[in-house]
Design brief:
single chain; mainly alpha; 8 helices
């Protein structure tokens, strides 16, 4: 498969993967663009590999890690935006989904990557291990820790929301 055909076939999926990793559409597009630029330079050797998509996903993941290490990265995530939305503007389902993604975005990078690859991209442990360059056991450990953390946060948020309404 040629580079252009690969980008046409898998480009949107790579951007979705990056959005879920970063939580920012623009940064995700930049990450994918940088990864594809690096892949283009080595495409002849990458396409001979077993699965070029694994290689490109790894480039996106490593690019995400590198972004957090940059000195110019001075953005500080906040729990809520200063200008809140008016009550009733969003449906309950949309608000719940947004809250869940905020919790997923707060996970450490490897845990977040496992959650995204497993539950959004529907990859099995072996494929995730290949992308993250670790063992399937490590993937399961990251998944267990991520789900435990998410459940704990959801329980804590659920109790505090119930206490506020009472």
């Amino acid at each position: 498969m040629g580079f252009e055909a690969f980008v046409a076939a898998r480009g949107a999926a790579l951007v979705r993967f990056a959005i879920l990793l970063t939580g920012d559409d623009h940064r995700a597009e930049d990450l994918v663009q940088e990864a594809l630029a690096k892949a283009y330079l080595r495409w002849s050797s990458i396409r001979r590999a077993d699965d070029p998509e694994v290689y490109v996903r790894r480039l996106v993941l490593n690019g995400s890690r590198s972004w957090w290490r940059r000195r110019t990265n001075r953005e500080v995530p906040v729990e809520r935006a200063p200008d809140g939305t008016a009550p009733g503007d969003l449906s309950l389902e949309s608000a719940d989904r947004d809250e869940l993604w905020r919790l997923v975005a707060a996970l450490p990078l490897k845990q977040r990557a496992v959650v995204v690859l497993r539950y959004y991209e529907d990859l099995d442990d072996a494929a995730i291990a290949q992308v993250l360059e670790c063992s399937p056991t490590t993937v399961r450990t990251h998944a267990m820790r991520a789900l435990t953390r998410l459940r704990g946060r959801l329980d804590a948020d659920g109790r505090s929301a119930a206490e506020e309404t009472a």
